[in-house]
Amino acid sequence: MTQFDFFPSRTLTAYLAKLFVVRILAVLVMLVLVLMMLDLLSNSGKILAVPGNGQGELLTYAGLRIPQLIQRFLPYSVLLATLITLVTLNQNSEVIAMKAAGLSAHQVLAPLLLTALVVGGFSFAFNERVVTRATATLKAWDAAEYGPIPAESSVRANVYLAEGSNVLTAAQLTGSGETIRMRNVTWYRRSPDGGIIEQVDARSASYAGPGWLLEDVKRFDVGSASTQEIDSLVVGEELTPDQIDLAKIDPEAVPFWELGPQIDAFEAAGRRTGEMRAKWWHKLSGPLSSFLMPLLGAVAAFGLARSGQLFVRALIGMALGFAYFVVDNAALAMGNFGGYPPFLAAWAPFLLFALIGETVLIRTEE
Fold first, then answer.
1. pLDDT at position 350 over 80
2. Taking the mean position of all CA atoms in its chain, how far away is CA 21?
């Protein structure tokens, strides 16, 4: 074994990787089960309140929600598994034995870093193939108030459209082009200074060419405080189907390889795309954050267990890991508001904490 070999022996690499994977899965299952039970306690009443819904719908909700929980908490699971693995190795003097055999701190961590990189690749594929579909379906079901989901494709929820000072909102939108259908529609007619003159609520809306035909309409006039119910009404004659097709992109419900061209279409139409571009980049940097966790938690691996500082080192590793998630969320929020360029908002926390983790490791152990 030489100091120039990045990985230890094949046997030791397999041993450390297996140890790490088992703990990642154990922590992830524990977190997902606990959070899923809390989520069901919070939302089961809404689901069961719909006539005809029962245990099958609760299982459907759980099946759609669990992929989202896995996506969100997999990096946390990698961090906690890193600390558990390294603390255990340290307490059993296995780290001391490896260093006595001539391994550097980087070589001890190499199997964990490789495993975390594989987990990050799995996370990316899982997010884009499974989580995006589950998110789109769950949002459409939530917009339908946990009732039957329309069978049409391209279901979108909570659509907001502007025609001058007037605003059209819809809880659910299906189809595209002239076949667009909207449900639970509200039309706000506003004065030039922004005040609402009239609010129109409708059960559904369809394209009238031009304008949008509202059905089962209830009109409320703000000035006279009077309400009127009519069968139909045409509004928004300047809103075209093409504008509505480009009205909203939900990055959480669109795969990475489809989101890029959609963002380009938005840019060609002169729309603001900074928020969507930051989330597009974050689809890469988010899963890759798992690779950082062994590096940030490495401080828990080294130092003598009997020195009494092992617990403090574990706390430092945990603090570094959670600080990354805080900074990452803050940077993404700044990117959404236009404070940071999209690329910087998505990648700056990753690069910053990679340097911090490497600096701490080198200064303390190498």
1. yes
2. 23
For residue 115, how many other CB atoms are within 10 A of its CB? Answer: 25
- pTM exceeding the 0.90 threshold for the entire prediction: no
Most confident range, picked from 32-36, 102-106, 177-181, 222-226? 32-36
Residue 150 DSSP symbol: P
Residue extents of the structural domains in the chain: 10-145+274-365, 165-237
CA distance 298 to 86: 7
- Dihedrals phi, psi of 157, to nearest 5 degrees: -120, 150
First to last CA, the chain: 17
The highest-level CATH class for domain 165-237 is: mainly beta
Burial status of residue 130 (CB atoms within 10 A of its CB: 0-12, 13-18, 19 or more): middle
What Å distances lie between residue 184 and 202, 206, 238, CA to CA?
Answer: 6, 12, 20
How far apart (Å, rounded) are the C-alpha atoms in residues 282 and 277?
A: 9
Q: What is the pLDDT of residues 227-269, one digit of tens each?
A: 888 888 888 877 777 666 655 677 888 888 888 887 776 676 5
